[in-house]
Amino acid sequence: MDYVLFGLAAVGLIALGVVLNPKRPDGDRSSRRLFDTPEPVGTGPYEVLLRDPGRKKIPVVKVLRRLTSVGLAEARAWTEDVPAAVMRTEAREEASRAVEALRGAGALAEFHHRPR
């Protein structure tokens, strides 16, 4: 009888530990991240990454120059040395528009939220 109660208590404690300290998607089980408040949506900084310029680099270079107002040499260097962080912004909408413009030119691009 004592073994059954001890087993149920152990199972209850294990279940309680999983509820109090769930495994996060990144695999981290530390309690310091359990009580972190999430970053409000729409606040920065965001970083736009160019992963692959695609088959035709000229339209991507044009979009990069329009988005960032850099020179031709720097825009070409970004298309040669991928992955490259081509833009940092505080607004999520601006980062999303930049990614859509780059994808429209045939590039593979994405944006990530960078914690402060």
TrEMBL record:
Any Pfam family: Ribosomal_L12
Name this polypeptide is given: Ribosomal protein L7/L12
Gene Ontology cellular component annotations, sorted alphabetically: ribosome
Keyword Membrane: no
Regions annotated as coiled coil: none
Keywords for this protein: Ribonucleoprotein, Ribosomal protein
Domain of life from the UniProt record: Bacteria
Annotated organism of origin: Salininema proteolyticum
ATP-binding among keywords: no
InterPro entries per the UniProt record, alphabetical: Ribosomal_bL12_C (IPR013823), Ribosomal_bL12_C/ClpS-like (IPR014719)
Domain Large ribosomal subunit protein bL12 C-terminal: start-end pairs: 47-110
